[in-house]
Every structure is written in structure tokens, then in C-alpha cells.
Design brief:
The complex is a heterodimer. Chain A is α+β, with helices and mostly antiparallel strands. Chain A has helices at 26-35, 88-91, 119-123, 145-148, 161-165, 182-190, 233-243, and strands at residues 12-17, 45-46, 54-55, 60-68, 71-79, 98-100, 107-109, 130-132, 137-139, 171-175, 206-208. Chain A has a single domain, classed as Alpha-Beta Plaits. In chain A, 20% of the residues lie in helices and 20% in strands. Chain A is elongated, with a radius of gyration of 25 Å. Chain B is an all-alpha fold. Chain B has a single domain, classed as Formate dehydrogenase/DMSO reductase fold (Up-down Bundle), CATH 1.20.1630. Chain B is globular and about 70 Å long. The chains are: A alpha+beta, B mainly alpha. At the A-B interface, strand 3, strand 4, strand 5, helix 2 and helix 3 of A face helix 3, helix 7, strand 1 and helix 8 of B. Strand 4 of chain A pairs antiparallel with strand 1 of chain B, so a sheet runs across the interface.
Chain lengths: 244, 312
């Protein structure tokens, strides 16, 4: 059913720290590696070794230059499904393939019902959904629904693959509906923001803006270079002879 | 947005088909045009043929067309599903009307009721098509109060110009029909100009800043996540038409409005075979013009996902 649940018991989602993300793409490859064998498998690659590589990815890392009156900085920006509270990608679905789970708020696609009309990808402002032209259905981030409840994994591994892979702990996973959860506290403390709030999709995921610049770092001015002058003496004569 | 030809043709053909169906349902049902077997047969075949061809074409856009029947299930939330339900439901009164008006040569009574229901079904279906686009918030050019009336006006326009060609073809044309076609074409032109004017001045509050959550200053894309075009860029990042949009707008206006208007005015003074030819030409040229207009409708629409890629 593509009508949305009035409320969900949990609001599972991600919090991404734009201050510590180094743009290493580890989350991207970890996501692809896990999910190409997971719930929405396969994450098809088209012409992977040719000139027009294409394929399905749930997580893409952009890089931006953010320039303000304080100066410029590079911001690495991972982009994936935000598991919105009012996802239009679900309500526009004509077949009931897209749905939002009442238990934890995860937005999923039932591949066996998808007709590949692509309307959900038009309805998503964030570009979270990617069409698999090989299978003919739409695919999207599952929040690693096959990891987070997986009893076969050690408790510490029951997090999305992207979160497990991040070497700088820039990605956090938890219940954003519970104000007492560690992840909600982090959002509170760091002033986490929602993307495109003006469109009214109420995304669950939050992004932590880069921290304010610090003036504490030592100033290390490089010494001025000495002017280049011609070498004198015998070595200078050889240098001049060989250079001519 | 990428203008998939199957969808461009679908919206254009069904618009004209439903416009003609509504016209025949009302005029035929209430005996405003005579119940003539061949006129009725050609007219209903044209209307239902355009609708069927459009609906078939739209399934060409699907990744798994064999599951298309599932699209009738989610009418409670989805405009696309409502469109599917309305389009199929409209065939029922349309076929009943067709049997009564064309094959039994009757009008009034149950034939008039079926004709009226077919006309209502046609209008509702065109509304659902318009709402599919008007409801999409990420595309500001579509998510406006201009989109839904545009679909209705364009269906009325192409339907009445086609209806005029049909009546002129059977030498039963009337000035009233001709004036309706002219007025509908003028309305279509005016609405399109107003829509372009609105879209060109559109101030969109969603920017690269709100898309990334980076407040203030300038956010500039310095590196994409991938080197080749992906699905998002192919589907939502279409840019070819914007380069030529001024020229294409002129072509669309010439074909969809100006040439048909001139040809329709000619019909007032031309004798029969010429009047029929001019009317038919007006309908054909207008159909081509609306295809260009619909192509631009997609190509000029900008999706918010392009903000992530720094595309203007």
C-alpha cells in the first residue's frame, strides 16, 4: 500500500558529518559490495570496462567548494536515501511496489511489483533512486535492512555497510525518532540539518555542518626563497659550459 | 527532464483522443451533429484509436510492461494509478455510446447519458494526467497552477480542431464548430505564453545551499561522484533543448497555433473540398506542434537533483 503510515514506531536513519567526511569513497564501495548481494541485488553495472560505464549505486559522494565571507573550504558530501517521513516517491507509486515501513520508517521497493515507470525517481528531489535498466525495476538504499536486524552478524556489525566502513566515523546510524538516542543527541549538539526542508518531504537523515574555523592552529609561514645567483668558481664554469 | 518519446506521444495523442471523444459524446449524444454511420465510425475510431495508441505507447516507457496491470491498484495515493483506472473506466461509457450512436444510429436517452459519461470520463482522465506532473514538487516548472489547466485546454484544443476536420471531411461542418476550434486554439496559445512567462520569471527557493545544507555563501560542485553520465543525469539532467529553447518555442507556436489559426480562418471562405483539406491540415500541423510543445515541456523542466551536479 502506497499510503503512508500515520506514524512509525522508530525513525531509523543516518547522520552524516560533513566536518569529518574525507571523501574517501569507502562507504560507496562498501555499500555496493554489500547490496549487490543483498535485499535489492544485484546492483547492475552496465558496460563496466567500456567507455560508457553506468550502473546502480545507492550512495554517491560529491565534492563541493563552499565559499563564504570567511573563505573557501572543500566539503565532501555523501548523498543517499533520506528515508523521508512523507516520501512522495512512495505515494506516487501506482503499483504498491514502494512502501514505508510502519515499524522503523525504512522506505523500500518490492521489486516483484515494480513496473519500472520511473515516476518515483522523478518525485524524489534528492536523486536517491536509480533505475536498473537490466532488470527493468527501480532500486534504492535499504538502510541495509538485511544487516541491521541480522542475528548472524555480531552485534557491533548490525549497522548499515556504509556506517561500518567509514574510517573517520563520519556516518552514524540510529533512531532519530527517539530524542534520547545517541544519534539524536549528536544532531542536537552539532545543529544537524535536513536537506531541502522547504519541499516538505521531512527527511529523517540529518547532515552535520562543518565546524566553525579555528584560529588556534599555529601560523607556519614558509621562509622566503633565496635569490638564485650564478655559481662561481670551477663548478660554476662547468655548469655554464654544460648549459650552453 | 529527459523527453522520452513514448511519454511525449502518449500525452499528446491521448489529449487529442479524449478531447475528440468528449466532443463527440456531447454533440452526438444530444443530436447536435447527425447520427451518421460513417461519420460516427471514423470519428469514434479516431478518438479511441488515438487513446489506445497513446496508452500502448506509454507502456513502452515501462521497464516491466508485463506487470502494467498492477498500476490499477494504488488509486488512493497515486495520480498515475488514478490515470490508469480513469482511462480504462472511460472506455465503458465510450463503447456503449459508440454502439448506440454509430451502430444503432440513435441519440438522446441512454445514448446521451453514455455520451455525457464518456465526456466526463475523458475530462477526468486528462485531469489525472495533468496532476501526475503538477504534483511533482522537485520540478518547479511543473508544480505550478498552470500545469493542470494546460492539459485540459490542450485536450480541448486538439480535440476540437480534430472534430472540425472530421465534420468538414464529411461536409457537415458548421460555423459554430469552426469558431470553437478557433477559440480553443487561441486559448491554448494564450495559456502557453502565460506559462512560459511564469516559468521564465520563476524564483526557485531550492538552491545548492538548501540541497546540501551548507548555509550562506556559494556552493560550487567541484567533483562529481562518477565520470560518466548515470541514470540521474540521463533522466533528470537533460540539457539539449535549453540551448535551442527560443527557436523551439517559435517552432512550437508556429505549428501548434499560428498555422492552424490561418488554415481554420481559410475554412470560412473556402468551398467544400478545399475547406475539408484545410481543416485536416490544421489538425495534422497542430498535432505536430503540440508534440514539439510537449517535448519542450519535458526538456525545459528542471529537477532539483541537477543542483547536486552543479548544472544550470
Amino acid at each position: 500500500m502506497t499510503c503512508l503510515p500515520a506514524r512509525t514506531e522508530k525513525k531509523l536513519g543516518l547522520v552524516i558529518d560533513l566536518d569529518t567526511c574525507v571523501g574517501c569513497q569507502a562507504c560507496v564501495t562498501a555499500c555496493k559490495e554489500w547490496n549487490t548481494g543483498g535485499h535489492m541485488a544485484p546492483l547492475t553495472d552496465i558496460d563496466p570496462y567500456g567507455g560508457h560505464v553506468d550502473g546502480v549505486w545507492f550512495n554517491r559522494v560529491h565534492a563541493y567548494e563552499h565559499t563564504t565571507e570567511l573563505g573557501g573550504r572543500t566539503v565532501n558530501f555523501p548523498r543517499s536515501c533520506l528515508h523521508c517521513e512523507t516520501p512522495a516517491c512512495v505515494t506516487v507509486c501506482p503499483t504498491g511496489a514502494s512502501y514505508k515501513r510502519a515499524s522503523d520508517g525504512i522506505v523500500l521497493v518490492d521489486e516483484s511489483k515494480c513496473i519500472g515507470c520511473k515516476l518515483c525517481s522523478w518525485a524524489c528531489p534528492y536523486g536517491a533512486r536509480e533505475f536498473d535498466s537490466d532488470v527493468g525495476v527501480m532500486k534504492k538504499c535499504t538502510l541495509c535492512v538485511d544487516r541491521i536486524y541480522n542475528d548472524n552478524l555480531a552485534a557491533e556489525d548490525r549497522v548499515p555497510a556504509c556506517v561500518a566502513a567509514c574510517p573517520t566515523s563520519a556516518r552514524h546510524f540510529g533512531d532519530l525518532g527517539d530524542p534520547a538516542s545517541a544519534i539524536s543527541q549528536l544532531v542536537e549538539e552539532r545543529g544537524g540539518v535536513a536537506l531541502m526542508p522547504e519541499l516538505g518531504y521531512k527527511p529523517t537523515n540529518r547532515y552535520l555542518p562543518p565546524r566553525a574555523r579555528s584560529e588556534r592552529a599555529a601560523k607556519v609561514d614558509a621562509l622566503a626563497l633565496e635569490p638564485i645567483k650564478a655559481e662561481g668558481g670551477f663548478l660554476g664554469w662547468i655548469d655554464r659550459m654544460l648549459s650552453s | 527532464m529527459h523527453p522520452a518519446f513514448s511519454v511525449v506521444f502518449f500525452t499528446t495523442a491521448t489529449g487529442a483522443g479524449y478531447g475528440l471523444l468528449a466532443l463527440l459524446g456531447m454533440l452526438g449524444g444530444f443530436s447536435l451533429i447527425p447520427a451518421d454511420f460513417w461519420l460516427g465510425l471514423v470519428g469514434m475510431a479516431l478518438a479511441l484509436g488515438l487513446i489506445a495508441a497513446g496508452l500502448l505507447s506509454s507502456t513502452g516507457h515501462l521497464g516491466r510492461p508485463e506487470r502494467a496491470w498492477r498500476a490499477f491498484s494504488q488509486w488512493r495515493s497515486s495520480w498515475l494509478s488514478r490515470e490508469g483506472v480513469a482511462s480504462v473506466a472511460t472506455f465503458i461509457p465510450a463503447c456503449i455510446f459508440g454502439i448506440g450512436w454509430v451502430f444503432l444510429g440513435r441519440s438522446g436517452g441512454w445514448v446521451a447519458i453514455a455520451g455525457l459519461l464518456a465526456a466526463i470520463g475523458a475530462a477526468v482522465t486528462v485531469c489525472t494526467t495533468g496532476m501526475i506532473y503538477a504534483s511533482l514538487k522537485p520540478i518547479a516548472q511543473w508544480h505550478s497552477r498552470y500545469t493542470l489547466p494546460a492539459y485540459l485546454i490542450f485536450a480541448a484544443m486538439t480535440g476540437s480542431v480534430l472534430g472540425n476536420a472530421l465534420l468538414q471531411g464529411f461536409n457537415v461542418g458548421s460555423n459554430a464548430m469552426l469558431i470553437l476550434a478557433l477559440l480553443a486554439t487561441l486559448a491554448g496559445w494564450g495559456w502557453k505564453l502565460a506559462t512560459w512567462r511564469y516559468n521564465d520569471r520563476l524564483e526557485i527557493s531550492t538552491t545548492a545551499n538548501t540541497a546540501t545544507g551548507l548555509a550562506g555563501g556559494l556552493v560550487r560542485s567541484i567533483e562529481w561522484p562518477h565520470t560518466e553520465e548515470n541514470y540521474l543525469l540521463k533522466e533528470m539532467g537533460f540539457r539539449i533543448a535549453r540551448k535551442h529553447s527560443a527557436k523551439l518555442r517559435l517552432i512550437a507556436q508556429a505549428l501548434a497555433f499560428v498555422v492552424p489559426l490561418v488554415l481554420l480562418v481559410l475554412v470560412f471562405v473556402a468551398p467544400w473540398p478545399l475547406a475539408a483539406l484545410s481543416s485536416a491540415l490544421a489538425a495534422i500541423v497542430q498535432f505536430a506542434g503540440v508534440l514539439v510543445e510537449r517535448w519542450l515541456f519535458f526538456a525545459e523542466a528542471k529537477h532539483t537533483v541537477t543542483l547536486y551536479y552543479g548544472l544550470e
